[in-house]
Design a protein that fits this description.
six-stranded mixed beta sheet, mainly beta, single chain, 31% strand, Immunoglobulin-like, binds copper (II) ion, globular, 586 residues
Length: 586
């Protein structure tokens, strides 16, 4: 029996007084630890003045124990105690978090460890949990409101006009302007890697900022199992321990064939267990850099407390390329420029104030709303139909300037909820992701993941569905197939015990860590009978990816992006598992 109390707390975070939402006064909440086969009984008391909930992330539980208000239970009202009780049918590293409002962003999360009924298929002498998260001293509701008002509010990385001229001298005006115009039409910027960044976030490792130096002690020669869990609301982390090879043995709580890596990207809600064996040095830095490079969480593995190893050099922020976005490289070549070519003139580029001698200018891109060009004068307009890789609204209007006007539809088959369409989405399970893999380090890719035990889930799918992950970054609308949650008519029907293949096409320029409650997703990564089971699958920008499910629990389950604000802004659906016989079907 475990007792958890949810309340407003007051804690010191990074030297400042903070008021997180906490469990038993702690951030992260206490480690819950059980053994496989046991029945967990957890009493949760809500001392907030709003409804709360706890969802057991990655655990197979009956729907009324899953903890999603409005989907599977009414939530825990202020002052109430709800008793969760369910049998533990699995083992491994999992976690729990609130599924109400912004409580998870405000600190309501903790690790959930289930020891195996028998024994682990790998050896280690000690272990630690490394829970990563992103803390904001702002009210999360205010962060969300600012994002809604102006999609790139937290992205201060936008490229300056000086960058434009630098690119032009390197790549020529034709390519540079073509590139900028494509980004402008999509109302995005290639620096839009994450929409909430280190400008508001303090990145935490087990609740501590990098300078607080959370430390795990080790004895010389021992093997340490490190259970990495990303409880970040909006942050992908790139994790490495310089000078230490990591042997990855578990992904999302499921054992995998050991794979040696020097770095891995962990999306929000994923977990990875690695084994390390420190030798030689007294201290090693556990370094978890935010994907957009706007900051990092860090801690130390050390022989004794008080030690520190050097902090690795920070990397430059990555840019997404049009290829990342699932756009054809040919599209660039197909774009027309004024016949005169070379240096564009004021006439050719009416939206840009540009000195004719093309000297670098200082104003930020922000001052020139996304390089917006009036659609009726943009030189590329007549060629839109001829561009093989792109499907853009033909009347694509300039970005920020028209945000108050009606949204153009054009040929956009998904409507205003989808401002981009990846026409050439590609499989990216072999790719480490934007900004990774160029440093000569061995970086984890999804195709490395091979389930350790096999059996039971190799059947050929009987049915397939395709869902597009869609968004309009400028308006901060996120959803499936162009519709946010509130616009979706019906739950997505899954048949009880059918073998279903779900294909996701990411039409947006952001990665979306997609989480399906209540059943495993078998990730199609080419590993055949060894395809891994995951509860959260990161779908990269411009990626087309499939997973199989075999729903064996009736009821309603949430399926959503685990970027918390994307979920709140609409990227959520309810999946309804029904017995076809009960529906009168055969
Ligand atoms: Cu998302």
């Amino acid at each position: 029996m475990s007792n958890l109390v949810i309340a407003n707390g007051r804690l010191n975070i990074d030297g400042q007084s903070a008021t997180p939402t906490v469990v038993n006064g702690l951030l992260p909440g206490p480690v819950l630890r059980f053994r496989e086969g046991e029945t967990a009984t957890i009493r949760v008391t809500n001392q907030l003045d709003e409804t709360s909930s706890i969802h057991w992330h990655g655990l197979l539980v009956p729907p009324d124990m899953d903890g999603v208000p409005g989907v599977s239970f009414p939530g825990i009202r202020p002052g109430e105690t709800f008793t969760y009780r369910y049998k533990l049918r699995q083992n491994g590293t999992y976690w729990y978090h609130s599924h109400s409002g912004n409580q998870e962003q405000a600190g309501l999360y903790g690790p959930f460890i289930i020891d195996p009924a028998t024994r682990d298929p790998f050896a280690y002498e000690s272990e630690c949990v490394v829970m990563l998260s992103d803390w904001t001293f702002e009210d999360p509701a205010r962060v969300l409101a600012k994002m809604k008002k102006f999609g790139s509010y937290y992205n201060f990385n936008r490229r300056t006009m000086a960058d434009v001229f630098r690119d032009a001298s390197r790549n020529g005006w034709r390519a540079t302007i073509a590139d900028r115009m494509e980004w402008a039409k999509m109302r995005m910027d290639p620096t839009d890697i994450a929409d909430v960044t280190g400008s508001t976030y303090t990145y935490l490792l087990n609740g501590q900022a990098a300078n607080q130096n959370w430390t795990a002690l080790f004895k010389p020669g021992e093997r340490i199992r490190m259970r990495f869990i990303n409880a970040g609301a909006m942050t992908h982390f790139d994790v490495r321990i310089p000078d230490l090879e990591m042997t990855l043995v578990q992904a999302d709580g499921q054992n995998v064939e050991p794979v040696a890596v020097e770095e891995f990207r962990i999306a929000p809600a994923e977990s990875y267990d690695v084994i390390v064996q420190p030798r030689g040095a007294e201290a090693y830095t556990i370094f978890a850099e935010a994907m957009d490079r706007s900051g990092y969480a860090a801690g130390t593995l050390a022989l004794r407390s008080g030690l520190r190893a050097p902090m690795p050099e920070r990397r430059v922020r990555p840019l997404r390329t049009m290829a990342d976005m699932g756009m054809s490289g040919d599209a660039m070549g197909a774009m027309s420029m004024p016949a005169s070519g070379g240096k564009p003139t004021m006439d050719a580029m009416p939206g840009m104030a540009m000195p004719s001698d093309a000297a670098p200018m200082q104003p930020k891109m922000d001052a020139m709303p996304d390089m917006a060009m009036p659609a009726d004068t943009a030189p590329t307009q007549p060629k839109m139909d001829a561009m093989p890789g792109m499907t853009m609204p033909a009347d694509a209007a300039p970005a920020k300037a028209t945000s108050k006007q009606a949204e153009p539809h054009g040929p956009d088959r998904h409507g205003p909820g989808n401002s981009t369409i990846a026409e050439m989405p590609a499989s990216r399970v072999n790719e480490p992701g934007t900004g990774l893999g160029d440093a000569g380090r061995r970086v984890l890719v999804y195709s490395d993941l091979r389930r350790l035990s096999t059996g039971g889930r190799e059947g050929v799918p009987e049915r397939e569905i395709e869902l597009h992950l869609t968004g309009n970054m400028d308006r901060q609308i996120w959803g499936f197939d162009g519709k946010k949650y509130s616009e979706a008519e019906e739950p997505i029907p899954f048949d009880y015990r059918e073998r279903l293949r779900v294909t996701l096409v990411n039409d947006t320029m952001m990665d979306h860590p997609m989480h399906l409650h209540g059943m495993w997703m078998v990730l199609e990564n080419g590993a055949g009978a060894k395809r891994p089971l995951k509860h959260t699958i990161n779908v990269k920008a411009g990626e087309r990816l499939s997973f199989d499910v075999e729903p064996d629990e009736l009821g309603k389950w949430a399926f959503h992006c685990h970027l918390l604000f994307h979920m709140e802004l609409g990227m959520l659906r309810v999946v309804s598992v029904v017995d076809p016989k009960a529906k009168g079907r055969t």
